[in-house]
Design brief:
There is one protein chain. This protein has a domain of about 100 residues. The protein is about 65% helix and about 0% strand. It is built from seven helices and no strands. The radius of gyration is 18 Å and the shape is globular. The chain starts with a helix and ends in a 15-residue tail after the last helix.
Length: about 160
């Protein structure tokens, strides 16, 4: 049920410690992503509706989703479907129902992503956060990553 995580877990593990960390992080990211896709399906959002609704809550500006390849016509059609469902306002912002649905999707995604962290345990999870926190802050502060991404990190 987690095809992206499983595919990455089957790849050969590198020898270098930093690449082992990268591979492990990739598997965890894809494990979460697989659960996120399930949560979106449960919420009855198709792929472009998922992006439109994410932009509508202010997670990322709509223009950053151009890299996903949806045409203007497909984006507009998804906006219309979300408007009809009462999830989007005419100004393309999320309604209260749209915000609630996105919050539920994220809650469900977190729930579906929790198993590896439960297996690691509270103490080791905290230790990992302590070890990686400064690295993460350094990467964010480096300017190497774009300020606006499709991930919505730090936006909502």
């Amino acid at each position: 049920g987690r095809p992206l995580a499983a595919a990455n877990a089957e790849l050969p593990w590198p020898q270098e410690p930093h690449l082992v960390l990268w591979q492990a992080a990739t598997i965890l990211r894809e494990h979460r992503g697989d659960g996120h896709l399930a949560a979106l399906l449960t919420a009855d959002l198709d792929p472009v509706e998922a992006l439109v609704s994410f932009a509508a809550i202010g997670a990322a500006p709509a223009h950053v989703f151009a890299s996903r390849g949806w045409t203007g016509q497909e984006w507009a059609a998804a906006r219309e479907r979300l408007l009809v469902r009462g999830l989007l306002n005419a100004d393309e912002s999320a309604t209260d129902a749209g915000r609630a649905l996105r919050a539920e999707i994220e809650r469900r995604t977190d729930e579906l992503a929790a198993a590896p962290w439960r297996a690691l345990g509270d103490e080791d999870t905290a230790r990992l956060a302590d070890l990686l926190g400064p690295v993460w802050l350094e990467v964010l502060g480096s300017g190497m990553l774009p300020r606006d991404t499709t991930l919505g990190i730090g936006k909502v």
